[in-house]
Amino acid sequence: MNRFGSAAILSLLLVGAVGAETFRAKVAGRLSVDEKAPEGSSISLSYIDSVVIALDGDKRFIRGVELDLRVPQQYLKYKGSIAASLYASLKRVPPAGVADLSAERIGFVPLPNKLQSVFHIPIRKDHGIKASPYAAVPTGVVPPADFPLLFKLMPVIKGLPEEIESMGFQLYARPILTDEGALKIDFQYPEKLKDKPFTLLVDDEVVPNPSAEILLGRGEHTLSVISEHYRNEIRRFDIEQAKVLKMAIGLQDPTPIVVVEAPENAQVFFDDQELATPRQPFAADPGEHSVRFVVGDYSLTKRISVNRGRNYRVVLAIDVTVDESE
């Protein structure tokens, strides 16, 4: 059986498939691959069953699909009797049951003599997926447009024993995620300063379109908002794998604000103009200013330098000092 099985496998590998194949398949069901469900989904199948593998939802954080086939312990003594084929570009998506199909075969792999076989299928050019002792890469890049795929188990020798016909196989399908997430910023503008220009930098790189989602690597990042019309902003944030971080940034009027705190009986002058309501915040032009406090016969003047985008609190503090000596 082993010699015949090896010859059959070699023949299939050499002949392969050119263009679309037409064949009959027994479809066990459908597995969904979605970035929002990294744990994946699974289905039970027999040695002649097929499974539809579909890409669902947003695909921007998926770089490949992992197919994980678990075989029963008793199959190991029948090495070389079953193989797996992968088909793409299905002319139609079949429901569960027996169906006549047309598709292009993109991979053929004899099942190795182990309890678990893992196959990685890249779906983008910059996938970074490589074959390893843990996983095989049976295909080249399969773009999302070529999905759904059909995973098909098939015997490669004749006269299989009844024990194989009664075996149950388990197939899992999971997304292979990129190490990226995204940032989406909702900018909120002051009523009098709408649509004024600003520059957004993320990790010191200028972002051409601040309103669009920004793809970033997982981990900590820094953003800066720089503008002549709004206050500058600096934020630190963390990006999680395959998740979109939504952030609201309220752009602020950069006009400096001054708040004065003084006793009730104090007169307050700002640039020699008495403040009618000195304890209410007020706007000031950038530059040098003077604040004068008058309490009875006592007068104190303080000069302050006011800068754009900053707030100032000016406090007249009256302190009492007690010294004790022998």
Describe the structure.
This protein is mainly beta. It folds into three domains: 2-177; 180-250, Immunoglobulin-like; 257-315, no CATH class. The protein has two helices and 23 strands. The strands form six sheets. Strands 1-3-8-5-6 form a five-stranded mixed β-barrel. A four-stranded antiparallel β-sheet has the order 2-9-4-7, with no helix packed on it. Strands 12-11-14-15 form a four-stranded antiparallel β-sheet, with no helix packed on it. A hairpin with a 6-residue loop joins β14 (219-226) and β15 (233-239). The chain is rod-shaped, with a radius of gyration of 35 Å. Residues 1-18 have low confidence and may be disordered.
Topology:
Blueprint lengths: L1 H14 L4 E14 L7 E5 L3 E7 L6 E9 L11 E7 L8 E14 L5 E7 L26 E7 L6 H4 L3 E9 L2 E9 L10 E4 L2 E2 L7 E4 L1 E8 L6 E7 L4 E7 L6 E5 L5 E4 L2 E2 L7 E2 L3 E9 L2 E9 L4 E5 L11
Parallel strand pairs: 1-3, 10-16, 17-23
Antiparallel strand pairs: 1-6, 2-9, 3-8, 4-7, 4-9, 5-6, 5-8, 10-13, 11-12, 11-14, 14-15, 17-20, 18-19, 18-21, 21-22
